[in-house]
Structures are given as C-alpha cells and as structure tokens.
Prior knowledge:
Elements: E1 3-10, H1 22-36, E2 41-47, H2 57-67, E3 71-76, H3 79-82, H4 86-97, E4 103-106, E5 111-112, H5 116-149, E6 163-166, E7 171-174, H6 178-189, H7 194-201, H8 206-214, E8 221-224, E9 227-230, H9 239-253, E10 268-270, E11 277-282, E12 286-291, H10 292-295, E13 312-313, H11 314-335, H12 339-369, H13 376-416, H14 419-422, H15 428-438, E14 439-445, E15 448-453
Parallel strand pairs: 1-2, 1-3, 3-4, 10-14
Antiparallel strand pairs: 4-5, 6-7, 8-9, 11-12, 12-13, 14-15
Protein name: Recombinase family protein
InterPro entries: DNA_bind_recomb_sf, Recombinase_CS, Resolv_N, Resolvase-like_N_sf, SSR_resolvase, Zn_ribbon_recom_dom
Pfam family, one: Zn_ribbon_recom
Amino acid sequence: MKITAIYIRVSTEAQREEGYSIEAQTEALTAYCTAKGWKTYELYIDGGYSGSSLERPAIQRLIHDVKNSRIERVLVYKLDRLSRSQKDTLYLIEDILNPHEVDFISLNESMDTGSPMGRLMLGILSAFAQLERENIRERTRMGMAERVKAGYWMGGGKIPYGYDYDAEQGILIPNGDADTVARMYRWYLQGYSPAEIAELTGFRYDRQITQILKRITNTGKIPFRGRIYPGRHKAIISEEIYTKTLLEMERRSGSNWNMEGNLLTGLVYCGHCGAKMRYQKWGQRGHKLVCYSRQGSKSYLVKDPDCPQEHIWADEVEDAVVEDMFYFPASYQHRSRKQSDTENMERTLEAERLKAEKRLSRLYRLYADAENAEDDALQTEIRRVQEECKKIREKQQWEKEQRLLSRENTEKIEKIGNLREIWPQMTAAERRRLLHQVIRRITITDENVQIDYDIL
C-alpha cells in the first residue's frame, strides 16, 4: 500500500516564526490527511535546513521512496517548504513526482498538481519563491558590503591564518600564530624560499606560505569584491613589509633571479630620491647599481625622474659593505647595553609597580569609606596614581621588548663574530641570506655608502 508523504522543513531563521515550527506544520498536515481519509502517512522532516538546495537528508529519503514506488502523494504546508529554488521545485515535480504518478499538494496555496490549474499555479508560485530567495541573498550581500566598509570582518567563511574571529566585536583578533606569520615575512625578505619557510613552520606545502604572504588582511585591511577597505582589526605586519614582500615575489618570479645571484639585491636605496636600486649588467666587467628613478622600467618605483644619482659599480659597494660588516661586532659590543643592566631595570620597575598599586589600593579603600564620595582631592589623587601605574606598566613592556630585541641582536652578532674567517667558505646564497638578516638598508648618495644594520 502506498503512503502519503508529509514533508516538513524549517530553516534556522524560520524556527521561531509562528506557524512555521515543526509542531505547527505537523498538526496542520496530519489534520488535513484525517479530513481526506488518508490513514497511511509518513513524516519526512528536515529541521534547520535551508531551502536553497536539495542537500537535505529527508528530501533525499523522500526522492528515494518515490523512485521505489512507496508514495502516492506528497503533502507540504507551503510551497517554499519544499524548496526556495524554482529550478529545484520544477525538478522535483517534473522529473521525480510526475514520472512516478505522484501528486503534489500544497496546503497553504490550495494547490493540487492532479489538475491543470494546479500545475499552472505551481509554475507561478515557484517563480515567486525563487524571486524571494534572490531578494534575501541580495539584501544579505548589501548588508555584508556595509559591514566591510565600516571595517568589520565579513563573518563566517575561512578565517585567515594568524587570526581568530570575535563574533561579539565583529572583527579579527590576532592569535598565537600571528608571530609565526610575522616571522614568515621576515624570513622571506631575508632570502628564504617558501619551501624552506614551510619546513621551518611545519606547513605541508610551500604554496600555503605564498598564500599567507600575499594576504593583505595581515596589514589590517579587508578585501571585498575587488576592493580594499581599512579594517578594524590589528595588523600583523606593516604595509611597508607587505609591499617589500610583493616586490620580492615579483623579482623572484623573473627568469634571471636565483639564490646564488646578486649579493645586495633588495637592500640598496638611492640617497637622493629614496627609490630602490637594482643590479644592471654593464659590459664585460660586471654590474652597476642603478636607481629605479633613472632606469624607469617600472613607473611605480620611480620617485624622482630627475634624480641625479649616477650609476655605481656593484662590486665596489659589495666590498665596502662586507668589510664594514667584518668590523661591526667589535663596535656593537662597545656600545651595546649589558644584559645585567636590563635585568636590574626590570626589577626596579616591578618594585615601583607593586608600590604604586599598593598605594592605589589604599586610596580605593579611603574612597569607599569616605563620607563625602565627591571628595575632589581624593579623586584627583586616585587618577594621578592610576596614571603612574599605567606609565610604569608601559615602561615594563618597553624594557621587555628591549630585552627580547637585545637577545635577538646578540644572536645576530654571534653569527658575524668570526665572519672574516668563514666568509670564503660560505656559498653565495648563504652570504646573501646573512646580509639580509643583519642589514636593514644600504643607502647610496653619489659615491657614499651608508649601512643601517638591523641591530640596535
């Protein structure tokens, strides 16, 4: 004996709407079956599923039972409970129900596909259901665009590596992986390949590293529909580092780039206009360093078309840089701050913080016990001590950062401490990588070379 299939669907949004709950639909549809004398019926319920697709367990079970000739008719409370897609609705009626001689009945629209008028109404109402779905989608997209323009994250979807999504604030929050993302940029600009960075960070594929490095979200911005908007979330890296990384990717993608190549590539800047300088083949002798403003091949790198900086032989600059680096460790040790001085300062600040917080605690108790809660002098003193505590904590944070920076600088100095002896044995790639680790910038003004070390 064939059955009447009662199909019930509620979406997450519709569950709270009166008349659309599972219970309300069940009560109305079973009562209709009783009135019609259909005693054998079965419930097919999809709770919390959208009507935009047929990827729903109950509707799939219903389709299976129709194909196996178990069903005589399908009964729904309203047409859009079956589907909000016109294409899917017509597919279910024309390709599933009709070929198996299964009638379709919608209680709310008084529709019965057993009649010609019912089939006509089905086509019309399906079109309206599709229109409503598209209107909802458009409103959602418009709302999302306004959120992004205001600096909020789109919500949902894939959260960028290095961030978590705070649904309450509607923004991205840097997580424990943010430091790893920052190191990726630093390593890449020091000459490491994406494959090497993947190995260092435990990623499986180098293309994952490339995707992270290209992600402008890391600079505090949000890409949306081909445009970039300022985000409210905290940046992991600066725009300068991001731009340098993209330029380095572009340079490496060129056919002439390799890790065994030019020693100072990416480090040299013009002292006159501030543009980057590049290696350029110059006859049989070798290469010259050329200001991009004068070379002009990439207009976005030009700072001053009338820049007076002359071309300079690259090997002479390289020799000057390497020789300066040989002597740098001795001069750094002479002027660097001792680790013991930093530790003593941190202990002093911690004692000052505890003392100030005890004083503030006493002031709070005095304020709580005061007969006159509007005592201006007491409130002024509380604010003064609060500000004092804040400044001490800021100093502590600064000292902590200096200690970590000093430790990093010490590691760099150790690398170049005996550089003169090991330099001849190093490969070109090792030399270039080391320079990118310890040098921030090389500025050439006429024939003068200024080296800014990435060591404070």
